[in-house]
Amino acid sequence: MRKIYYLASCDTCRKIIKSLPTTANLEFHDIRQNPITVAELEFMHQLSGSYEALFSKKAQLYKEKGLKNVTLTEDDYKNYILEHYTFLSRPVVVLENEIFIGNSQPNILKLQKALSNE
């Protein structure tokens, strides 16, 4: 599987996608138009090792729901990600059995390097 989970309306996601090699040959999955499935999330969990790693604490709903004042379990992270797309840290790129989560510069540089080494 070679897939990028992103939000089409997100400027940061668009900028990152534009920075990727045109030969990347990724399947694009807009998580607003096509919510992720339980199976897709479980596969991401297998690769990342935790639902918390996939969870965005920058989401407006995180603040609105007051979740920073609550101790969340792995099941909570999973359920919130499945409940609303904004809880998935974006973008998430899956290259076969490797996963790249979020928009931090070191992560994007690792992704670009992995794609350019192909």
UniProtKB/TrEMBL annotation:
What Gene3D superfamilies does the record point to? Glutaredoxin
InterPro entries documented for this protein: Arsenate_reductase-like (IPR006660), Thioredoxin-like_sf (IPR036249)
Could you tell me which PROSITE patterns the record lists for this protein? ARSC
Please provide an example of a Pfam family that matches this protein in its UniProt record.
ArsC
Q: What does the similarity note say?
A: Belongs to the ArsC family.
What name goes with this protein?
Arsenate reductase
